[in-house]
Amino acid sequence: MTAADIPKQQRAAVRQGSGESSTTVISTVPVEEPGPGQILVKINWTGLCGSDKSLLHDDWKAFGVSMLPQTHGIAGHEGAGIVVAVGEGMQKRWKIGDRAGIKWIASTCGECEFCLSGTDEVHCEKQVNSGFSAPGTFQEYCVVDGRYTSKIPDGVSDEEAGPIMCGGVTAYTACKRSGVKSGQWLVLPGAGGGLGHLAIQYARAMGIRVIAIDGGDEKRELCTKLGAEAYIDFQKAKAPADLKEEIMKITKHGAHGVIVTAASKTVYEWAPMYLRPGGTVVAVGLPSDPTILAGAPPLIMALRKLNIVGNITGTMKDVEEALDFTARDIVHPILSKGKLEDLDLWVEKLKTGQVAGRAVLQVAA
């Protein structure tokens, strides 16, 4: 192993308790050494994703999804920083000083059917996930699989790279999953949010015409500035059907696609109604309520030949492409910056909708 000067102990935000009342405490924990095939990354910035909040508060317990003991209570999966140690077998791929991004998928087996397809390792059944089945990025130093960690290109700052590791690539791949082509219409409910504002930018970069749905003049200004061609203020609608009517006025036959980033029952119920025949709803937002379904009555599905698809994160190649949009000065996450010590405060802000764009926390002292 080659390494720079590395301390034996580090700061980490460690989960205390369980359920909605759980908190995090800044604790001193050991710094692990990378083994064969691994690297050690000193994390400068980490994004705070809605999924982190859900894992910390056991929002998905009804689905059997909770942080596993091997995380040691350390969540986080949008890390960016500097490689400070390189394990055996990784010297040709990484060197000390390289910039690295840590994702939700921390490692894959490389041998299963999904990995060997070359395009779908996201579904590797033996994958390891940051903050879910391995210690995440809410710590100063993180050991990760050197084969599956992303290189951050020049032109992308660490604070921008962090959110792209999950939020950015999820928005980007959702645009691709929608099947909407250049010149066609895409509806984005919650367009001014953490995922929505990125989806606007990726969609516009792909030549897609965007209808943004959100509430208030501030969100209108943001969405139009980012490239939305039309904006619908849901706060001014008397009923959900009013949004459908507005979309039909703009598109005539309905949108070609809808990306649902809001984990809302009403949005999921109405999203298929915004579509033209053959259109696609992409489910991205993850409600904690297991009774919320994505879809439409079978009669509508059949008569209009609608598609309902899911999307979560992306492949190594998808991450590379998503980062490239930022390196080329096309897509930039709007950032609300804080510090790791204030993680609980930012989780609460995320919960109550007080975060503008994506939250990023400075980790390095």
UniProtKB/TrEMBL annotation:
Transmembrane region(s): none
Cofactor: Zn(2+)
Alphabetized GO MF terms: alcohol dehydrogenase (NAD+) activity; metal ion binding
Region of interest called Disordered, as start-end residue ranges on this chain: 1-29
UniProt biased composition (Polar residues): 18-27
Swiss-Prot/TrEMBL keywords: Metal-binding, NAD, Oxidoreductase, Zinc
Pfam families (alphabetical): ADH_N, ADH_zinc_N
Domain Enoyl reductase (ER): from-to ranges: 19-361
Top-level taxon in the UniProt lineage: Eukaryota
Key word Metal-binding present: yes
GO annotations of cellular component type: cytoplasm
Family: Belongs to the zinc-containing alcohol dehydrogenase family.
Name of the protein described by the UniProt record: Chaperonin 10-like protein
Species classification: Eukaryota, Fungi, Dikarya, Ascomycota, Pezizomycotina
